[in-house]
What we know:
- The protein contains six helices and no strands.
- The protein is mostly helical.
- It starts with a helix and ends in a 7-residue tail after the last helix.
Amino acid sequence: MFASIRMTFGFNAALTALGIDPAKIDLSFRRCVQSMALEEGYNAKEAATFMFYQLPLGRVPLDTELKMLAWVSQGKMRSDVIEKAQRAEIQVMLPLEEVGHLDLSR
């Protein structure tokens, strides 16, 4: 239970650090990614990075890439998470009917 609570707070803070407002992402999708992250042994920064690459945002901004690379160099994130997220080896996307839509315009 505490791991789940800690993941939620850390995950939302990491998303914010990457320039994403967590409130603009469907709650079901966020929970799905957090659940997958706990199962895979990811920390909150790794989970946020994985989610970031699953969002339909287009090109990754340079400052976001630099933030992720800083987390890797500081030992806060494993570099293979970025590679897995880019290749989407771990599928967390649910059918849109289950997840709802991503409203990033708020």
